[in-house]
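[audit] Reproducing an earlier prediction to check determinism. Same input, same settings, fresh worker. If the tokens differ from the archived copy the diff job will pick it up downstream; this log only records the rerun itself.
[audit] input (386 residues):
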Amino acid sequence: MAAFWIQHQYSLLVFLGVLLCIALSNGWAWRRLGTHPMPSVFPHLAVLIPVRNEERNIADCVRSLLAQDYPDFELLLLDDASHDGSARVMNELASQDGRVRVMQGEPLPLGWLGKHWACHQLAQAARGDFLLFLDADTRYQPQALRLAMAALLAEGADLISVFPRQKVGSWAERLMVPVMHWGIFSFLPLALAYHLPVPALAVSNGQFMLFRRSAYEQIGGHAAVRQNIADDRALTRRLHAQGLRWRLLDGGDYVYCHMYRNFREVYEGFSKSLFAFFDYNAPLFLFVWLWLLVLFWEPWTVLALGWMGIAVSAVNITLAVQAILLSLLLWGLTYWRFGYRLYLALCYPCSILLAVMIALSSLYLTLSGRGTWKGRRLGRALHSQR
């Protein structure tokens, strides 16, 4: 039994070493916004924002977009049956700047999720060959749109997705929001994902997705993923499956986001989408989260047993300390790269514990059809859409 345990601890170290190699490779492959050459001509760009109950966010978002140095763009906002003051704020903004157009969303059809229906309507109303879908809780430096278009053209990409720098306030945000960056940065080898014919490796961020219209229409747009909660991932997988080109960018110097403000919002936001991100595969979902719990909590458990005087060998303790140091390095790399305060990396066991709790809740809420988002019932996931 003792030999098996030591072997198991070695397997944890090897796995952590692999994750560290992936993270280091992504430090090179995950390019930053602002590192591509500027084109001689910037094409017309349609900036599209679905808005549902975003009274606290939409004005600052729109003002940061109207301050862009991009030479030719339109800004379309769609009021998706908001029941706060979003419509009033949007209409005031439209009256002040002719680039802003406010649309009233049509009633939600059967079989559609709300945001997907809103994005579909926006895409149909937009002009031009380039569509940029944004979330209302994002903010932009004046160069952001120009740099994103430069990246798409220089990469010859059909989709550019930018990860903003996330603002975190409450402890629920500090513990949970960085897990999103950490998971992709540590588990997804981008240099391989871009080129291997494996759509499951395709990932994007729905807060900022810049499409060539031709590619968006070729993959069926939001209509093709109308019931998939993780629409950003589903769209990118369809794009990858058809041999089209996608790229992720780190936009931390130019794009900012404050997704959630308290535990309730963190819980509701992540519980609606975590299970969907795994394509509703319950065995895989449970295995991954159980393995992460073991990976990051077992070394601390070994140290606790040693401290309590329970029979733990010096080898066990040495291996546990090495695993903890590797874990701190792995989490610290993510926090440093994406602009989180480094001291938060020390809290990684609590982050994983909170993530596992929300993941289990996501599984239950999705399968039972009790999940909600912004006042709408999400329904029960019966199948995925690829």
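[audit] rerun output stored. Observation attached for the diff report: Residues 2-26+279-377 form one domain.
[audit] end
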